[in-house]
Design a protein that fits this description.
Helix content: 10-25%
Oligomer: single chain
Order of helices and strands: EHEHHHHHHHEEEEEHEEEEEEEEEEEEE
Structural class: alpha+beta
Strand order of the largest sheet: 3-6-7-8-9-10-11-12-13-14-15-18-19-20
Strand content: 35-45%
Radius of gyration: 32 Å
């Protein structure tokens, strides 16, 4: 069906041939005659519009795009051409809106890619970095080849570094043989004491499914090339669904009994110094922790960390923290925790990475059972190359915690000692990604031995989650 387009004096300036009589010449001293309405078919109007865009006649292209949209409001080509024209006219916000509609009505992978890429470019020009990141992820989803996808990933990282606002959301589901960290036996045996007790069902290992969600948002309030200061907030939620076996073992237990929630707000300052641009950080966090649907404690934590980059390319970090917990059950339950950690990361020649960490922790409080000293040693290995459909990484952790003055009705001779070992294997499936987010599968096994049998535990879990590839 013909499209009626009123072509004004811009046609004369463009010297376009829209009729079969040849170009119209108008002398400067003459009064131009009124221009007639020109009937163009949709393909003809599109050709003229594309020619106008290619020759820098943005006003004409914009007018023709609006005319095409009057005939078909769902024309992805018209919305895209309008976005290009608005961009050429220096109107990035209008261009971004038109590009978004072009993406909505696009047909096929190429049109979706071009519209998303244009929306990202115009969002960046409009100084909307968060929206730029969103459109870059959509462009990555429709990238025509791996080379283009890699370039878009580099662009995303560059915009993310410039954006004062950052956020992340992680979550997952994991079936577990021990959702409550319960004992692997119904007997209460304490080495050195001549009696044996029994444990209630909810103190023993209960099986089920654990779901968690972890969200963080941060905003940079100040910074320079060598420093940055940001405020942040985090919310972590864990919920449990007991299975039939668990409900049989502990009929009085409810799902909410084993859930937990904590939230924090924080302030962090980081700065680089020296020839290698080593980074120092200091941060303060205030938060609240809930367990089993009940407010457990408020806390304040002060952290400091130092990262070094060695000549070999390895990274070494040292961190220390002090946490004060104000119990909701009275001041006698208050706890103070001091921690110290040393870690390193080494990049091998083949691109694989090896990590090591040593962590020390001491807890103190009025109650003897809150006082403990612990040490943990962990190591990890990450493959650089994909094996089959997955990128693999894994690690092991060994830890020892000593409660020197532990009591369980009676003082435990020599105190309580827990020795734990755990291992995990992560599998990231990058080829199954959507907009740069790929599924991740983690298999974890752990076991704790103790001279107090209540704390002898074991767990096997398989967690399915989603994570960003970049």
């Amino acid at each position: 069906m013909p499209l009626r387009v009123l072509v004004r004096r811009m046609i004369q300036r463009a010297a376009l041939v829209l009729t079969c009589s040849g170009p119209m010449l108008v002398m400067a001293e003459e009064t131009p005659a009124p221009l007639p309405e020109v009937e163009l078919t949709l393909p003809q109007a599109q050709q003229v519009m594309q020619h106008a865009l290619g020759t820098g006649q943005s006003d004409l292209a914009r007018t023709l795009a609006y005319g095409l949209l009057e005939a078909d409001a769902k024309s992805g080509i018209a919305h895209y051409s309008l976005a290009v024209a608005e961009d050429q006219l220096g109107r990035p916000q209008e261009a971004q809106r038109a590009a978004a509609k072009a993406y909505r009505f696009a047909q096929g992978q190429l049109q979706h890619f071009e519209a998303a890429q244009l929306a990202a470019q115009t969002s960046y020009k409009a100084r909307r970095p968060t929206r730029t990141q969103l459109w870059l992820r959509r462009a990555i989803q429709h990238a025509p080849n791996e080379r283009v996808e890699a370039q878009l990933e580099r662009d995303y990282k560059r915009v993310r570094a410039q954006n004062p606002l950052s956020f992340s959301i992680r979550g997952g589901l994991r079936p577990s043989s021990n959702v409550n960290n319960g004992a692997d036996s119904g007997l209460q045996i304490i080495d050195g004491l001549p009696f044996i007790g029994t444990l209630s069902g909810n103190a023993q290992a209960l099986s089920g499914v654990i779901a968690h969600a972890d969200g963080r948002i941060a905003y940079r309030i100040g910074g320079s090339k060598s420093s940055r200061t940001e405020v942040s907030a985090r919310l972590y939620v864990k919920r449990v669904a007991l299975d039939g076996d668990a409900k049989t073992l502990s009929p009085s237990s409810r799902n909410r009994d084993f859930g937990s929630t904590y939230g924090t707000v924080g302030l962090t300052h980081a700065f680089a110094w020296g020839k290698r641009k080593d980074v120092s950080r200091i941060g303060l966090q205030l938060g609240q922790y809930h367990s089993g649907g009940t407010h457990s404690y408020d806390f304040a934590r002060l952290d400091a960390a130092q990262d070094w980059r060695l000549d070999s390319g390895a990274r070494v970090s040292l961190n220390a923290g002090v946490e004060l917990r104000d119990s909701a059950f009275g001041s006698s339950f208050d706890t103070q925790i001091i921690s110290l950690g040393l870690g390193s990361r080494h990049q091998l020649r083949n691109g694989d990475a090896v990590t090591f960490a040593l962590n020390l922790q001491k807890a103190d409080g009025d109650l003897s059972n809150t006082r403990s000293e612990g040490v943990a040693l962990s190591a990890g290995y990450s493959l650089n190359q994909q094996i089959g459909p997955a990128i693999l990484s894994g690690g092991v952790t060994l830890s020892h915690v000593d409660y020197a003055h532990y009591t369980a009705l009676f003082a435990v001779p020599g105190g309580r000692q827990d020795l734990s070992a755990s291992a995990h294997l992560d599998m990231l499936f990058p080829d199954l990604d959507y907009a740069g987010f790929a599924p991740n599968l983690r298999v974890t096994t752990s076991r704790t031995t103790s001279n107090v049998s209540r704390f002898k535990t074991k767990e096997l879990s398989v967690a399915l989650g989603i994570q960003s590839k970049f």
